[in-house]
Design a protein that fits this description.
This protein is α/β, with parallel strands linked by helices. The protein has helices at residues 17-20, 39-51, 53-63, 108-126, 134-144, 158-171, 189-201, and strands spanning 5-9, 34-36, 67-73, 82-91, 96-102, 146-147, 155-156. It has one domain (5-16, 28-201). It is 42% helix and 18% strand. The strands form two sheets. Strands 1-4-5-3-2 form a five-stranded mixed β-sheet. It has a two-stranded antiparallel ribbon with strand order 6-7. Strand 4 (82-91) and strand 5 form a beta hairpin. Helix 2 (39-51) crosses helix 3 (53-63). The two termini are 26 Å apart.
Length: 204
């Protein structure tokens, strides 16, 4: 990864009912586990799915789990010299909810590698059904993670660092790393399922 850091943040947020009734859901009540609400991060995810077998395999595993992932870019991460962050949101009897935020100033390849890093953290949540709150998430990383106490409640994992490097290697020979994560149109929840599915299947 770059000199920018990634971390886990433990913030308990009550998710409003309209957010849980997500417009990205299919009519049968199912839908993608990964749901971007920012055109830039959606473009990076689609690009990464097309170019990185590592990222595609991770996303396939997330789609089999019970964790809903909201993706966004967050301008304030640049002030803290952070590449990305995973934030705990909430849990219901059916699903657990987290948010992955990415620094919008990252070059495209770095942004995709950071997505890989943060989605590995999502897989760590998927793998442990006892994680149902910010407290239990922190307890998990106290047992298995690396403390980043320069950041409030910040944690990381060796596996996430390795995965970020694996995704970056997948991208070698692709688009120039100096290309910044460009702005795109907002994500249309009515078409995201199709775009997402096509990108996941593109490298098979």
């Amino acid at each position: 990864m770059s000199m920018l850091r990634v971390l886990i943040a433990f913030i308990t947020i009550v998710v409003p009912a309209h957010a849980l009734a997500d417009p990205a859901l299919d009519p049968d009540g199912t839908g993608p586990r990964i749901r971007p609400y920012d055109g830039r991060v959606a473009a990076a995810l689609v690009d990464g799915l097309r170019r990185s077998p590592t990222l595609r395999a991770m996303v396939d595993r997330i789609e089999q789990g019970d964790v809903i992932v909201y993706l966004e870019t967050r301008q304030s991460l640049g002030k803290d010299h952070l590449a990305g962050v995973l934030t705990w949101l909430s849990a219901t009897p059916a699903f657990r909810y987290v948010r992955v935020s990415i620094n919008p100033e990252l070059p495209r390849n770095t942004a995709i590698a950071t997505l890989g890093h943060e989605l590995q953290h999502v897989l760590e949540v998927v793998s442990d059904p006892s994680i149902v709150s910010s407290a239990s998430l922190e307890a998990f990383y106290q047992r298995h993670g690396i403390s980043m106490r320069r950041n409030t409640n910040g944690w990381d994992s060796l596996r996430a660092r390795d995965v970020g490097d694996d995704v970056r290697r997948d991208l070698n020979g692709g688009r120039p790393t100096h290309v910044v994560l460009e702005a795109t149109h907002e994500v249309d929840p009515l078409t995201w399922n199709t775009v997402y599915r096509t990108a996941r299947e593109s490298g098979r």
